[in-house]
Structures are given as structure tokens and as C-alpha cells.
Amino acid sequence: MLKLKLTLWRHWQKLRRANYWLWAQAVFAVLALLRRLPAKSAIEFSAKAGRFIGPYTSRHRVAVANLRSAYPEKTTAEIEKIAGDMWDGMARLFAEYIFLDAVFDYDPNVTEPGLIEVQGTEIFERLRNEKKPHIFFTAHTGNFELLPICAATFGLNVTALFRPPNNPYIAQHVLQARRTNMGHLVPSKAGAAWSLAHVLGEDGNVGMLVDQKFRRGVPSTFFGRPVRTNPLLAKLARQFDCDVYPARCIRLAHGRYRLELNERMELPRDEKGQIDVNATAQLLNDTVEGWVREYPGQWMWFHKRWG
After folding, report:
1. pLDDT mean across residues, the chain
2. Cβ neighbours of residue 135 under 8 Å, at least 6 residues apart?
3. Taking 80 as the threshold, does the pLDDT of residue 83 lie above it?
4. 200 within 8 A of 207, measured Cβ to Cβ
5. Which of 45, 65, 219, 244 sits a CA distance of 20 to 30 A from 278?
6. Which GO terms describe its cellular component (predicted)?
7. Is the pTM of this model over 0.85?
8. How far apart, in whole angstroms, are the C-alpha atoms of residue 83 and residue 297?
9. d(Cα 74, Cα 32) in Å, to the nearest integer?
10. What confidence tens digit (pLDDT) does each residue in 123-170 have?
11. 7, 15, 16 from 4: Cα distances, Å
12. How buried is 101 (Cβ within 10 angstroms: 0-12 exposed, 13-18 middle, 19+ buried)?
């Protein structure tokens, strides 16, 4: 019986790898076709395709269910409008991976406006000269991948924690693209906390996405619903007593982007004066919720954040 189970498990693993490989080849083929187009045309084509295909996927049902729970006062038409905007943005993000050099045209020394505008330039410049660790956090809004590139423009090297795709073939491709454009990366897996702690211990800078599902996280709420939130940022901030800065990307009209870096957050502390991990996790959720409520169509509602 045990031998049979092992045989079945091996066959299942092979089938899963084959399925991953086929999906990866399809994705790579689409990316190759997009590369043949000018950046603007490729991104706009992807956005239209995303709006058309997205509603037919199983993830659309997840997105609609999440939106109805978050916005019980909205009509079905309003919910579908937000979901459509989300698919537009996610498809743009897919195409922007291969055109990051064309998209990111910001130059601090040029006054002529381009695709990118930056709010908080004085903060970037100040932090560049500070000899101490910093933590930056953001969420899956707009094109969040542009933020570490922007930091590098101001001379700030940020080591970013990211969660690789489940598909190992696509994960390898994405990692290579991100490493080329964004500097140091730490995959979200065992040992990631030690890697980030080492960076902070050397007075380095760390960037984190804080709106992902984390089964072993601390209890908190998001849009009034219970969730588990990763306590890593709060624990690192407490360990190194470093400043924490919120940053986000907002999609603007005509294919433009605004990157925002805000002043450091005052993190809640306990009776001993140490950073309160649970309260900080809730503060991060509240901050992201505020961003999402401001631009609901720019967040990835198909993520099973509450699952």
C-alpha cells in the first residue's frame, strides 16, 4: 500500500510539473509577442485583454465576493466596475514587467514631466544621507514594482522581500527580471527574516509588501473582517528600533504613475516603550485599507486575503 501511494504521489508530482511547464510556456509566448510591440501599445493591449478575459476566470468570483463583503452598500454594477478596473491594472502590470526601462523615465534633475511623478523627493534625499536602517512598506496597488527602482534613482538601495509565483518556471523568470531592475531580493520563505535582519544590522534598507495572506500571522482586521497579518515588519522594527515609511504607487490617467513616499509612521508602543507588534500589524492594515478605499480598482481583489 505504501509503495502504491509513493508511486501515485510521484506521478502526481510529474503531472503538476508538466502543467506548470505548459502554463509557463504559454506565458512566455505571450510575453514574446508583447515584446514585438512598442511599450505603450503592448501595455494598452494587455489592459484591454485583461478587462475581457478576467471576468471569465474563477478568480473573478473571488474578487466579486471580496468586493461585496468590503462594500455591502455598492450595487452589482459598481462592484463589476471595480473588478474590471482591477483586471485592467493587473494586465498592465503583467506587460510592464518587460518594459520597466521604458516605463520608468523619472529623472530628479529634469523638470519636464514624464510618465512618472514622485511625491516625497525630499524624504528620499534625506534618507539617502542617514546612516541607519529603514523599513519601507507598500501594498499591491498600482505598479508597486516601480518603488524600489525609484529609491535606487535617489541612491537608496532597498532589499525587497517578495513572494515568488507558485509556478517554479515563471518564478525563475520573474526573479531574473526583478533582479535586473530592482537590486537585491529576498524570496519569502524560510530564512527570509534572517536575511532582512542582516541587511538592517548593516544599516541597510528593507522593503516589504504587507497586504498578503499569512496563516501564522497575528489576529487583526481588514475592511472590518478578521485576517492574519505577518508580524515580521513590526518585529524587525522593534529589534532594530528603525523608522518605518509608507510608500505606494498610484496609476494616473494616460498611462502615467505617481509614486508617493510619506513621512515615517509613529508606531504604537507597549507599556515598556517597545513597539507593539499586534497594534502595529493593525496599523499597517488600516493604512493599506485607506489606500484601497481611495483607489479600489487598483488593488488585487482576487487575492484570498480573508481565506
Report:
1. 89
2. 200, 205, 206, 207, 208, 233, 236, 237, 242, 243, 244, 245
3. yes
4. no
5. 65
6. plasma membrane
7. yes
8. 7
9. 39
10. 999 999 998 999 999 999 999 989 988 998 898 988 887 776 677 776
11. 5, 17, 18
12. exposed
Q: Which amino acid is at 275?
A: I
Beta bridge partners of residue 299, listed in sequence order: 141
Output phi, psi for 115, to 5 deg: -75, -25
Alpha-carbon torsion (219, 278, 65, 59), positive or negative: negative
Pairing of strands 257-261, 243-251: antiparallel
What is the residue-wise DSSP string for 125-191? Answer: HHHHT--S-EEEEE-SBS-TTHHHHHHHHTT--EEEEE---SSHHHHHHHHHHHHHHH--EEESSTT
Q: Quote the cell numbers at residue 127.
A: 534618507
Report whether 102 contacts 175 (CB < 8 A).
no
pLDDT band at 185 (very low <50, low <70, confident <90, very high): low
- CA torsion sign for 26, 29, 35, 40 is negative
Four-residue CA torsion sign, 254, 138, 211, 190: positive
Per-residue pLDDT at 67: 97
Q: What is d(CA 255, CA 110) in angstroms, rounded to the nearest whole number?
A: 19
How many residues make up the chain in this entry? 307
Rounded mean pLDDT, 278-289:
97
Tens-digit pLDDT profile for residues 16-28: 778 878 887 887 8
What whole-number distance in Å separates Cα of residue 66 and Cα of residue 59?
Answer: 11
CA distances from 153 to 43, 139, 150, 156 (A): 23, 21, 5, 7
Q: Centre a 10 Å sphere on the Cβ of residue 294 and count the other Cβ atoms it contains.
A: 12
| Separation of first and last alpha carbons in the chain | 34
